[in-house]
Amino acid sequence: MRYSGRFSKQCGAFAATAVLFLLAFAVPPSRGAETAAKPGATRITLPGFFDPRRRPDRPDPSRALIQIRFIATDDFPPFSFRGADGQVMGFDVDLARAICQELAVQCTLEVKPFDALIPALEDGQADAAVAGIAMTPASRAKLDFSDRYFRSPARFLARRERGIGAITPETIGPLAVGVVAGTAHEAYLKSFFPNAALRPYPNMDALRAALLRGEVELVFADGVQSALWMNSAAAQGCCAFVGGPFTESRYFGEGLAIAVKSGNDLVRQSINYALSQLWEKGLYTDLYLRWFPISVY
């Protein structure tokens, strides 16, 4: 099963190819922080995915890794997708490269169809999948997962000129709220915003068009999908996030983690150590700012 925050395919199909990470990680180190911003930019709040009180142990030098064979898909923007030159790129790709740089090991990344990821880990064809495999009881029975490194929240969007402020079950009552029918987002609103005037739409394109036309005053949808759209020409600079974020696991999943074969503690623990170091050194912050110019939090 795919993580509930996986996004609609935006790139064409490509044959699987392996990309060997040999280049040094180019982002300069800086101090980790919960908030950060580039000079002259709006200050951005970063989610605290990594508990500073929990410090994973450094990998045992006597069992040092020689390499990590990562696998991913190419239909998961902005995490892993094909750029204009056909090369695989994205947040997950840069994160995998940074993990390998931190651990000082050689890595490869191979693109596979999503349905082939778990079999590749189970058969020993790969060491780690950075591809949005949902953390569920069924997947946990087959795989182990690293610490969580990302979670896509649900967010409300509104047209900028509306000037909508705080979002609460009380204040949302008179507002028309658009949502894609049959989704976890619709179920969440029915449970926690029972007074909302819901207007279901068949898909995201219809929902966004309704917001642009003014048929609805709010849209409730996935934060990353929404940020990508707001940063595109199609949105016409119309909208901004209001209220939230909302991250309830029962509706929106547990987030993103790197999957490894069950029992592969050396790779899992090494990845956890690298993730904690990337956060402390501020490298995770740099990656977040690079790939999420409109923060999803």
Automatic annotation (TrEMBL):
Q: Does the keyword Signal apply?
A: yes
Keyword line: Signal
Mind telling me which Pfam families this protein's record contains? SBP_bac_3
Q: Where is the signal peptide?
A: 1-32
Family membership: Belongs to the bacterial solute-binding protein 3 family.
Domain called Solute-binding protein family 3/N-terminal: residue spans: 67-295
Q: What is the protein's name according to its record?
A: Transporter substrate-binding domain-containing protein
Cited InterPro entries: SBP_3_CS (IPR018313), Solute-binding_3/MltF_N (IPR001638)
Where is the protein found, in the record's own terms? Answer: Cell envelope
Query: What superkingdom does the record give?
Result: Bacteria
Q: Is GTP-binding there in the keyword field? A: no
